[in-house]
Amino acid sequence: MRKLTIVFHHAGGGHRNAAEALKSTLSAQQHPWDVSLLDIQEQLDRIDIVRQSTGVRIQDVYNQILRRGWTRFTPQLLKVLQTTIRVYHSKIVRLLRTYWAEHPADLVLSVIPHFNREIAESLPGNNGKKAPFVTLITDLADYPPRFWIERESEYIIAGSEKAKAQALTMGHPVDHVFQTSGMVLKPKFYEKTNVDCAEERKKDGLDSECLTGIVLFGGHGAKVMVDIVGLLDQSAVEVQLILICGHNQKLEAKLKAMPTRKPKLVLGFTTNVEHYMALSDFFIGKPGPGSISEALQLHLPVIVECNSKTLPQERYNAKWVEEKGYGIVVRSFRQIAPAVKKLTEAATFRELQRNTANYSNRALFEVADILETCSARSAAPELIQK
Q1: Contact in structure between 337 and 234 (CB atoms under 8 Å)
Q2: Distance CA 344, CA 301 (A)
């Protein structure tokens, strides 16, 4: 069976989610791949200077920054990270070459940024032929330089017109750059949802007829969710909220204890996000490519924040939301009450619903087809000219 290795890490949840979704689909298709997931952090532990000095992996430091909202200086931290990777470039390449020698692959797919030059240069020939290397951008756009798109990347899969244009501008051949209809989502988001919304809301203690917003800030929630609940409760906006706190039990308890005029449903970690999105009318959260794409796949208009604390690689996402007419962008969630009021005005809401109803994402299956193309070209190079 053909061997595919997907390179990922745990910095943020999107990379791991994409890797796991692709493994599930590619392993079960009619012409399956033998899929292995490579957590690059495990290979880099021996040269992770943060781990050596503190005992904490560098990806865990990043996740802690996200959980605590310490993101204002992320652009500067990225420069430090990228400089460190350049300094350790040769060592990283050697470590990865050792891995490939023990675990050869017929195709390698990266769903992570920063390390794609190192991955590309580490790949050896397999029986005299180098395995194709594909970079799947799991952001709506690159944040150059040295983030996603490298000159050494053989094939690029982009989830937006912007990312595709960036790859072409860097000089990648047109027939080596593929565009999908969006971000790769978990398989559940591609299944049809037949939910009796009114009945399910009643079961959860919600008003069956009230406009409902789902508030989601990743796997560990965010303190700003408390502010959002308080500001909307103090306003005249007639909406109820579904709040997903992830693993943040302290936040979950605090939100449950808050008295509100309208019903609310507060949840901890759940594997059924798509179900609760199906019970909702709109989405409130950070402009992460995964959460925005999940909301749009369920045809929910979105409200997201964009300011100096927004991760630099996610700032384009907010611009994209406005350009496509998928929702409202605020400078601060302190403006959430007027933003929800505007979104729920009849004319505005109808327009946003029309726009989001036209959103159709088949990226999970499109990537599977693209990988077949890349594999076939490697087996028969003359196909590149077609």
Answers
A1: yes
A2: 10
Q: Which residues contact 161 (CB under 8 A, 6 or more apart)?
A: 179
Please give the model's pTM, rounded to 2 decimal places.
Answer: 0.90
Tell me how crowded residue 300 is: count the other CB atoms within 10 A of its CB: 25
DSSP 178-214: EE-SS----GGGGS-----HHHHHHHTT--SSS-EEE
Domains 3-185+362-385 and 188-357 share a fold: yes
The pLDDT of residue 192 is 83
Segment 140-165, tens digit of pLDDT = 999 998 899 999 989 999 999 999 99
Architecture label for domain 3-185+362-385: 3-Layer(aba) Sandwich (3.40)
Please give the radius of gyration of the chain, using alpha carbons only, rounded to the nearest integer: 22
Q: Which tokens go with 243?
A: 């709040």
Q: What are the distances in angstroms from CA 182 to CA 8, 128, 317? A: 19, 35, 12
Per-residue pLDDT tens over the stretch 159-174: 999 999 999 999 999 9
Provide the β-strand partners of residue 34: 3
CB of 266 closer than 8 Å to CB of 238: no
Domain ranges within the chain, ordered by starting residue:
3-185+362-385, 188-357
| Residues forming beta bridges with residue 282, ordered by sequence position | 213
Residue 67 pLDDT: 60
Cβ–Cβ < 8 Å for 316, 331: no
* pLDDT, tens only, 51-104: 555 555 565 655 566 566 666 667 777 787 788 889 889 999 999 999 999 999
Architecture of domain 188-357: 3-Layer(aba) Sandwich (3.40)
